[in-house]
Amino acid sequence: MKEFVNIGIVGVSGRGSGMLRELLKCDGVRVPAVCDKYEDRANRGAEIVKEEVGTDANVYLDYKEMFEKENLDGVYVATTWITHSRIAVDAMKAGIHVAMEVGGAASIEECWQLVRTSEETGKFCMLLENCCYDRNEMAIFNMVKKGVFGEIIHMAGGYQHDLRDEISLGRENRHGRLFNFQMRNGELYPTHQLGPITKVLGINRGNRFVSLVSMASKSRGLNEWIKNNKGEDYDLANYNFNEGDIVTTMLKCANGETVVLTHDCSLPRHYSRAYRVQGTKGIYMEDGESIYIEGQTKHEEGDWMHHPEDFEGYREEYEHPLWKKYQQDGVHAGHGGMDYLVLSAFAESVRLDAKPPIDVYDTAVMMAVTCLSEQSIALGSAPVAFPDFTNGMWIDREEPRRGKFCLDEVCEEYFEEVTAE
Ligand SMILES: NC(=O)c1ccc[n+]([C@@H]2O[C@H](COP(=O)([O-])OP(=O)(O)OC[C@H]3O[C@@H](n4cnc5c(N)ncnc54)[C@H](O)[C@@H]3O)[C@@H](O)[C@H]2O)c1
Fold it and tell me: Which long-range contacts (CB under 8 A, 24 or more apart) does 223-232 make?
């Protein structure tokens, strides 16, 4: 393992600057260069590096120039949904491993470009899907692997986040989301749910998505928010937004499981990813943090139907060893700690020059849902075929790389000193 690696960053707005602070805390990481097309944001990136670790970072407005001039081992891309992939492709061609922020693809061709460039260059492209490393999702994964839910039949999740102000004020805040809601209609943000779901279902490793159907509701939420907060005369008050307020997507797997995704960002609501895992022995539901395991959940005789248990009762037994260790070491900030973990997973892969826990095939599958759902909606909710980005290898993949950050297995042997305590 390399003692230190050089990681650059492209895109230093809200997300990029927060993650930059976390990245600088990861073992063996140096950030010698930062880039944003806006000079003030790029300069702010260099200030953050100075504040956090006291070193100077070179400032770039053009990422290609940064790739050319700096000796980077890896790059973290936190730009807009429609720019992530082209920057990732250019980075891999420049010999740099990529961590890419989440967001959906605009086309299937974009996903293939990522896959082919990674295969041709030998550089990896890891979607930085932080929710794979969230505490509950990891504990549930541990439970799935231990057979607690039996054979998995159905899963669900949602990106259910009231973002009306962030979307509507996109121009004032130079933020990328608005134009997508104006012009597109689909599951625009599928990866927070799909990260954990694809890992539970073994997608690209013995399983794959074969088809998808999407349906969108009418769009009212943004107009109402704009009228109430910016006034009737604001130019977007009566804009006909294409994106439906609620977009529901159903996916079918080769092994027979089904998945339902909900995109819900333009109506008033509390935050929830609505994670649901259901198998032949029981169910977990994030909403209400409830769980029901047949034969295990305690209930009065004859009244089993109405009494799920609180998930907290299962936490101690099934806490993922990575989280046990993380809590012993001290949890870092950033979405409850998962941001630091996903960045550490990326940094470790760069230092080892080895496959990341979320590889380019996983990245392509998660991103593809966006453009496939747009196609389905445009065709009146017709089923659309899901491409196989592994080109058949999903039936006979090489074993995943085991390690602390592995998301395909729980690699207890890497935590022996933690689990012994
Ligand atoms: N994983 C998470 O929990 C999480 C949370 C928030 C945001 N995100 C994702 O992070 C990304 C960034 O989010 P944000 O809210 O900071 O978005 P933003 O639109 O505010 O910022 C994007 C930044 O990228 C810069 N940029 C765009 N194209 C560029 C280019 N070609 N070269 C250099 N810089 C370029 C822009 O100038 C801007 O500063 C988005 O994809 C978003 O979906 C993820």
Answer: 225/164, 225/165, 225/168, 225/266, 226/168, 229/165, 229/168, 230/168
